[in-house]
Structure formats: C-alpha cells, structure tokens
Design a protein that fits this description.
This protein is α/β, with parallel strands linked by helices. It has a single domain, classed as Glycerol-3-phosphate (1)-acyltransferase. The protein is 45% helix and 13% strand. It contains 8 helices and 7 strands. It has a 7-stranded mixed beta sheet with strand order 1-7-6-2-5-3-4, sandwiched between helices. Helix 1 packs antiparallel against helix 3 and helix 6 packs across helix 7.
C-alpha cells in the first residue's frame, strides 16, 4: 500500500561507514517489514470487494495499516513524530494545507486527521494494493494533465467531501521539496481555498530531515506543527502569502 519510490536505492557497502551501514540496514529492514505488512492488507482486498467495498471500513483499515507501519518505523528505524499546536485544529471540517518533503506526511495525514480526503494524483492508482485502497477510500484523485478540468473536479469533489463532514488535505507545492527549499504554492490551493469557504489549517512538517526518497530513513523525531487557522474570505493572493509565511515560520520554530 505504498509507492515503490518510497524505498530508497541501496548504496554500495564500500561507501558506508559502520554507522551509516547500520542506518542503511535498519532502513532496509523496515522496507521488508512494510512490504510484509502491506501484503496482509492485499489479502483483505477480496473480502472488502465481496462486502461491496464500504468506504468507512476501507478507511478504517487504512488507518490500521498506517499505525502498524509507524510502529515498525519507530521500533526498527527509531523514527517517531511529535505534534505541536494541536489546539489550532478547527473542530469542524477544514482545508489542511501542508508542505511536502517526503512520503511520510501522506501516510501520517490518514491518522492525524481521521477520515481526511487527500488530494492525490491519478498515477498513484496504478500502484498495487495502495492504488486499490486509494481508489475506494474516498480520496480526491485528479488527473493533473487535464488542466482546468482537473481543477474543476478537485473543487467539486472537495465540496462533496466537506458535505460529508470530512476535511480536505492538499500539498500546495505540488511535489516533494527539500527541507531547505522555500515554500511556494501552486495555483490549485488558492482556488480551493476561495471555492470552499472554510478555515484553512497550515500544517508544517520537517520529515525530509529523516525520510528522503534517495537516502535511508534515519532515527529521530519528525515535528508536525499546526499554525493558527486562516479564516475564509481572503483574496487568493493574500491567502497564499499568509499560508506560505505561516508554514515557513512553523517549520523553523
């Protein structure tokens, strides 16, 4: 239930110090654990299919998968996380805007915000097991190549999601960025904020310090920081400027 790109390539042992070799070994051991854990949920697919693929049950199963993955991540790699500013999370459905540094926050969002709908790209549906659960769990899947149509579909699906009492999460940068890169929004998040008329919650992560696509995962504590929510009603440009500044401040605090 995870993109293969989340598994970093192995480095030649001759290039690794004993400490780095141990880090790489723990990371690879976690990859194996995650593959086996994910395989168990692949076995559950026929059962869910016979039951008619009920979305609440599939989302609940996905949360169990994430919690199990994070238990393994902490036990094998020594990587955990801590939340700061949880009191800033609105009581009702909202638009969560998060910076994007690794695969970690995509997984984490499913347990940090139960029943959240993540705006995801259509290509993820092709991934075995992960794609099956993604398609049937009520996520907001868009084809980014379709331009304006994708934006319209994103807004329509997001409105339907909020009507169900669920929050929507988007990664406004559009792709993963290095921890040192400035946070710059793409156009979709601004349009979504204007169209939905709900508070926007900036969520900053520093996961890229420990989980990078081409490096072994390292021990440490990922910080998840929730900034003060942004009330609806700002212009698109004012929202983007406010949210970018809030995320920059939160991730550096």
């Amino acid at each position: 239930m995870t993109p293969t790109s989340a598994f970093p390539p192995a480095l030649p042992a001759s290039r690794l110090s004993p400490r780095r070799l141990a880090v790489a070994a723990r990371s690879r051991a976690f990859d194996l654990y995650l593959a086996l854990w994910t395989g168990l949920f692949g076995l559950a697919i026929p059962i869910f299919a016979l039951l008619g693929s009920p979305r609440p049950a599939i989302r609940a199963a996905t949360r169990v998968w994430v919690r199990g993955a994070f238990l393994g991540l902490r036990a094998i790699v020594g990587l955990g996380h801590v939340e700061r500013g949880r009191e800033n999370v609105p009581a009702g459905p909202c638009l969560v805007v998060a910076n994007h540094q690794s695969t970690w926050e995509t997984f984490a969002a499913l347990v940090l915000f139960p029943d959240v709908a993540i705006v995801a790209k259509q290509e993820l549906l092709q991934i075995p097991v992960f794609g099956w659960y993604l398609r049937r769990s009520g996520m907001i899947v868009i084809d980014r190549a379709s331009g304006g149509k994708a934006l319209r579909e994103m807004i329509e699906q997001s409105r339907a999601t909020l009507a169900e009492g669920r929050s929507v999460l988007i990664f406004p940068e559009g792709t993963r960025r290095a921890p040192s890169d400035p946070i710059v929004f793409k156009r979709g998040a601004e349009l979504l904020y204007k169209a939905l008329g709900v508070p926007a919650l900036p969520m900053a992560v520093d996961s890229g310090l420990y989980w990078r696509s081409r490096s072994p995962r390292r021990a440490g504590t990922i910080r998840v920081t929730y900034a003060a929510p942004i009330a609806p009603g700002l212009s698109a440009s004012a929202f983007a400027e406010t949210a970018e500044a809030a995320l920059e401040a939160a991730r550096r605090a």
